[in-house]
Design goal:
Layout lengths: L5 E5 L3 E4 L4 H14 L2 E4 L10 H14 L7 E7 L6 H9 L3 E6 L19 H10 L3 E3 L13 H16 L5 E3 L5 H8 L6 E5 L1 H5 L23 H12 L5 E3 L8 H4 L14 H11 L3 H15 L8 E6 L9 E3 L2 E3 L10 E3 L1
Parallel strand pairs: 2-3, 3-4, 4-5, 5-6, 6-7, 7-8, 8-9
Antiparallel strand pairs: 1-10, 10-13, 11-12
Helix pairs in contact: 3-4, 10-11
The chain binds (4S)-2,6-dioxohexahydropyrimidine-4-carboxylic acid and zinc ion.
(4S)-2,6-dioxohexahydropyrimidine-4-carboxylic acid (DOR) binds next to loops.
Length: 348
């Protein structure tokens, strides 16, 4: 990686993105396909992507929506339910249709109602995944509403993740979009080829006070919800450390403006247009630009047993900050994430 007034990275991948389908997919895909060479595509559509058959047709839809000259590769995931058939799942993995499977605790987040009600029910699935070397991606929050929303990730570690990992010691797990110091410490205490975590640009940039700065900020609302500043600092420290257990996953999750600015607004932040630029700003603020290539482009492929991309992407530092338009979708819009600091880098 070269750093000066310009910065060259191995082309990154996005290890966690929501591309949706139909018109939304057609509109958001370009931003992901421009910045990233591959992306782990989340399966929480309505209805969800459960079977190998579902994933083949969803992957076809994504590829058909790409520009003709794009070589972006969507890596597909299966949405686990209480009824997931391990034979179909592993056959899909062995055929290269699925790269991983996603565990949503039922009710944890957007379109998670068909998710898993009790992880014990999935032990045969987890055993099959473990034997096949198929990674399990986890939305790590408990769903008990008696547990405070700010404690749900912390509690998940003790009540679900640690017992699951004790039952399946060889299962490869990605703890997705971590938001707490407890998650950072937990991942750091584990074997790097068995447990890793993605970290989003928004969780590196905002804390829970930012959600209410001057009024309620629905466009910063996402799940897991941003936590106190001490947790944001722990995430920045983990990302900027170069530790291979931490890697880039934007969790870019577009929703139409009226679904966000509502009496019951949806969770999700759309950050694909400026995700890389936000990561660059965070690493620069922390004098860690020399660690960015590992976080953005090397650690993810290593965990997934894939080669890093053999292309590069170059950024230049500007004298004036970048600005970003909202995305027009039909007669509505999707608001692009704005971090609470200026973005001076842009892709060349
Ligand atoms: O904020 C979120 N939005 N968190 C998730 O886990 C799902 C996502 C979505 O699909 O909108
Ligand atoms: Zn997500």
């Amino acid at each position: 990686m070269k750093i000066n007034k310009s910065l060259t990275l191995t082309k990154p991948d996005d290890w966690h993105v929501h591309l949706r389908s139909g018109e939304m997919l057609a509109k958001v895909l370009r931003d992901t396909a421009t910045s990233f060479n591959r992306a782990i595509v989340m399966p929480n559509l309505s209805p969800p992507i459960r079977t190998t058959y579902d994933a083949v047709s969803y992957q076809r839809e994504i590829k058909a929506a790409l520009n003709k000259d794009s070589d972006f590769t969507p890596l597909m995931t299966s949405y686990l339910t209480d009824e997931t058939d391990p034979d179909d799942l592993i056959a899909g993995f062995k055929r290269g249709v699925f790269t991983a499977a996603k565990l949503y605790p039922a009710g944890a987040t957007t379109n998670s109602d068909s998710g898993v009600t009790n992880t014990l029910l999935l032990d045969p699935v987890f055993s099959a995944m473990s034997n096949a070397g198929m990674p399990l991606l986890i939305h790590g929050e408990v769903v008990d509403h008696k547990i405070d929303i700010f404690d749900r990730e912390h509690k998940f570690i003790e009540l679900v993740l640690e017992p699951l990992r004790n039952r399946h010691k060889n299962l490869k797990i990605v703890f997705e979009h971590i938001t707490t110091k407890s998650a950072v410490d937990y991942v750091r205490s584990s074997s790097p080829d068995k447990l890793a975590a993605t970290i989003t640009p928004h969780h590196l940039s905002v804390n829970r006070s930012d959600l209410f700065a001057g009024g309620i900020r629905p466009h910063l609302y996402c799940l897991p919800i941003p936590k106190r500043e001490e947790h944001r600092i722990a995430l920045v420290d983990a990302a900027c450390s170069g530790d291979k257990r931490f890697f880039l996953g934007t969790d870019s999750a577009p929703h139409l403006i009226e679904e966000k600015e509502s009496s019951c607004g949806c969770a999700g932040v759309y950050n694909s247009p400026n995700a890389l630029l936000t990561y660059i700003a965070i690493f620069e603020q922390n004098n860690a630009l020399d660690k960015l290539n590992s976080f953005a482009s090397l650690n993810g492929p290593e965990f997934y047993n894939l080669k890093p991309n053999n292309k590069e992407i170059e950024f230049v530092k500007r004298s004036s900050p970048m600005s970003f338009d909202d995305l027009q979708v039909g007669s509505s819009r999707v608001k692009t994430f704005v971090p609470p600091f200026p973005l001076f880098w842009s892709a060349k």
